[in-house]
Structure formats: C-alpha cells, structure tokens
Amino acid sequence: MCNNYPLLTILIFLPLAGCLLLLPLWGRASLARMVAFVVAVFELALTVWLYASWQGLEKMPTRLPGYLLLEDAPWIPSFGIRYILGLDGISLLMVMLTSFTFCVALAVSWNAIKERAVLFLALMLVMETGIMGVFLSLDLALFYLFWEIMLIPMFFLIGVWGHGRKIYSTIKFFLFTMFGSLLMLLAIIALHLLHAQQSGTATFSLHDLIQTQIPFATQLWLFAAFFLAFAIKFPLFPLHTWLPDAHTDAPTAGSVILAGLLLKTGSYGLIRFGYPLFPQAAEAMTPLFYTLALIGIFYASLIAFAQEDMKRLIAYSSIGHMGYVAIGIASWQPVALSGSILQMANHGVTTGALFCLIGMLDERAHTREIAAFGGLWGKIPLWSFFFLIFSLTSMGLPGLNSFVGEFLILAGTIKQSPLVVVLSFVGIILPLIYMVRLVQEVVFQQERQPLVLMDLNLREISVLVALLVLDVWVGVHPAPLLDMIHLPVQILTGVVP
Predict the structure, then answer these.
(1) Is 379 a member of any domain?
(2) Cβ(284)–Cβ(218) below 8 Å
C-alpha cells in the first residue's frame, strides 16, 4: 500500500515546501524559527514511522531486491533521465540520521543566529532537501543534481554566518568540492555513453548502468573520478585540508551538518555507486584505499593533539574516525561494511554532540581556546557531564555507540587484511591521548581565568539528552539497526545475488 503514495518524494521535498512557509515571516525571526523546527520535526516523524514499518515494507515486493520503497517516473526522456528514488535499509538509516541531525542543528542555533535568521533557516531547509535527495536517488543524473544542491546552502552558511577566516574557508570548501564534482559529472556522462553504445538505450539508472560491460582500464579511470569526488567529501588524506578550516569557521549548526551528514554523503556515495558500478577497479585500488585511510587515522590524530582550538581538534578527530569507515568499505566484507554503515551514523551523533557542546560553551565564553578554560566541572556541571560522556564515546568506550562500529569494522577486516587491523588498533589508542588531554584541561584542570558561565538551559539539555539516548541505545543494543541494513549489505557484497 505504501508504494502507492510518493512517500520518498514527500520526504525529499517537505523541507523545501517549508521554505515557502517562511516567506511571509521575513521580519519575524522567532515565529520563523518555530515554523522551520516544526517542519524538521514532521520530517523526523516521517522517517521514524518508516523505521517502525520497515519489517512490513520488506515483505512487500519491489522491482529491485532489498528495497523497501521505489518511485520511478520519466523526467527527461530524450536524455534517458528518470526520476528514480529508492529506500533500502542503508538509505533509511541515513535519512533518519539526516532528519534527526537537522532538528539538532536548528535547536542549537536557536539563539545563536540573530542576523538574517529567516534566510539562514530557509537555507537549512533547502540543504535538508538536497541531502535527502542524495541518500534516496537511484538515477545518477538526479543524484548529481541533489549532490550540487546540498553544497550551495553550506557555501552561504559558512560565508555569511561563519567567523574567523570565513571567506577563505568558504572559497576553499567550494574549490575542493566543485573540482571533485566536475570530475564525477564527466565520469557519469562517459558511463551513460558507454551503456548507450552497448545496449542502444540511453539511461542514467544506477541498476541499468551496473550491467554495463566496461574494460578494466576504462573502469579504473571512471572509478578514479568517482573516488576523488567522494574522497574529498569523506575526507581522505590528502584531500582533507578543507575540512578543519570549514569546521573552525562555520557556525555551530554548520559544523553539526558538516560532521553529521556532508561527510557521510562521500562514504555513502562509494557504497551505493562507486563499488557497485566499478567492482574490478575498486578491488584493484583496495591497497591504496587502505593506505590513505591509515595515514589519515595517524596523521589526523597527531595533528589533533597539537590543536589549541577545541573545535579544530574535533574537526581533525573526525578525519581520523572516518578513516575507520574507509577501512570497512575498502574490505567490502559484510561484517566490516555493516560496521562502516553503522559507524557513519554513530560518528554523526557523537561528533555532532561535541560540536553542539563546544558551540554552547562558545556562546557563553566567546572563546574556544583550550587554554582559556579549566575547572568547568565545578562551574557548569551539566555541560561538563555531557562533554565527558561524549568524549568517552569518541574514544570508543565499550557500551557506547562508537565501540560497536569500530569493533565490527576490525572484526570483519581481520581475515582479509590482518596488518591493516593491527595498525588500525594502534590508531585507536591515539584518540585516547588527545581526548583525555582535552577533558583534563577543560573540565578538571585548575581554573585559568575567572569566567562567569551559565550552565545548560532546558532547550540545550533536551538536545543533548536526545543525542545521549541514541548514543547509549546503539552502544547497548545495536541489533535493530544491524538487522535493518543486513539484507542490502548482503546484496551489495554479493552474498545474496
């Protein structure tokens, strides 16, 4: 019955429709915030309902195995472009993460954005539409459209509402992402032409293009273009340099979206498009993928240890944590790939929470320098408690969500690449060093400056409690999410044809 309704279209364009509701509220920021948040909550409610229904949807037949919902309609027939959307367990996890993260980002920016607030809210909703489209598109032309749509609002979020070297960071973000995107566009067009030459049919459909017979040398070039675009978003070493600057100079909501979602579009793109389209080339490049991931883990951790800005430290830690996601994808084994997909969601929750906490502290103290703080446990105990818990999660403490994802990645990779796992395990120790140092100096160290700080308010506590509940739930009982992604992972890795 659900397939008779355009639920996926509603999921994508509901935030965009919310922008229309903001137009009459251009001078009424308080009401506009409420309207935008209500739209985001409705979006979250729809994804939660889909999650609650996924077992029933799984029993309903669809044209593609493993998919819960499909929408397929002609869009630009002369070029073979169709409007194809699909929801399987992997994309369902990602759209749940997206809707939840935008609720968090809107809540933490409630009082932080005072100038051009309605424009800020409209751009946030447009970006949610773009990211939802990335996670649901099964036509490469449609995917590319949403891929570009999601970047435009982030460009303005950093450039208009950022701080520090915001123009420099904005231009750097734009140049890196556009370079990778243009290469991917050329590869998409080349793949389209190759398929049309072989079959006589013009199409951009992912599951039609997968059937294309591509010579190995051509596969390598095309996969390299896709890989570069996704590796920039990931980001993998040495294509990571835009991220610390973007995080440092973005507003708190921008950092939450960057860490929670934009990085995940790169890893999701490799899983959904890169590996299925070019399996032989992907396998050939596995050693390179492992090497870049390992370098990123060690390099980012060492650089994080040297940071004096808390936000920049967490930005570098993101590069290291995403290195484990890269290792799980590179192994392309069911257990490791499941761990990577779960870790994508875990990283979004944990790192998003840390950026929220740093943003809350910055609003009060107007600084993020580690040297400015000390003794916060006695001053703002609620903030310190949440900061300690989420720091422990970032360290991979058992019983919290990051441990589960990293354990599955290493357990699934060890048979294929034991050396990679050994080195990765050594890399796990490094976050312990810089996160313990961060917590020690900010929370427990003797007070350095006589700062007068207010503890968390009810809105902030509500946001952090929601993040903490997810953190502990996945850490203690990850089975429901792993069950949800089990079948699509089996199909992708070839265990289930």
Answers:
(1) yes
(2) no
CB 29 within 8 A of CB 118: yes
What is the end-to-end Cα distance of the chain in Å, rounded? 26
**Residues paired with 88 in a beta bridge:** 67
* Domain membership flag for residue 93: no
**How many other C-beta atoms can be found within 10 angstroms of the C-beta atom of residue 149?**
17
* Assigned domain for 105 exists: no
pLDDT digits (tens), the chain, 497 positions: 345 678 999 999 999 999 888 888 877 888 989 999 999 999 999 999 999 887 766 666 666 788 888 899 999 888 889 999 999 999 999 999 999 999 999 999 888 888 888 899 999 999 999 999 999 999 999 999 999 999 889 888 888 888 878 888 888 888 888 888 899 999 999 999 999 888 888 889 999 899 888 899 999 999 999 999 999 988 888 888 888 888 888 888 888 998 889 889 999 999 999 999 999 999 999 999 999 999 999 998 889 888 888 989 998 988 888 999 999 999 999 999 999 999 999 999 999 999 999 999 988 888 888 888 888 888 899 999 999 999 999 888 888 888 999 999 999 999 888 999 999 888 888 888 889 889 998 988 887 777 778 888 999 999 999 999 999 999 999 999 999 999 999 999 887 65
Q: 3-state DSSP call for residue 238?
A: coil
Query: What is the greatest pairwise CA distance in the chain?
Result: 74
Q: Which residue has the tokens 């590996």?
A: 275
451: which DSSP letter?
-
Count of domains forming the chain: 1
With b meaning 16 or more CB within 10 Å and e meaning fewer, what string describes 266-284? bbbbbbbbbbbbbeebbee
Residue 390 domain boundaries: 285-497
* Inter-residue contact 213 to 278 (CB < 8 Å): no
Query: CA–CA separation, 325 vs 111, rounded Å?
Result: 34
DSSP category for residue 455: -
Q: How far is CA 83 from CA 8, 80, 191, 228, in A?
A: 11, 10, 18, 26
User: What is the DSSP secondary structure assignment for residue 76, as one 8-state letter?
Assistant: E
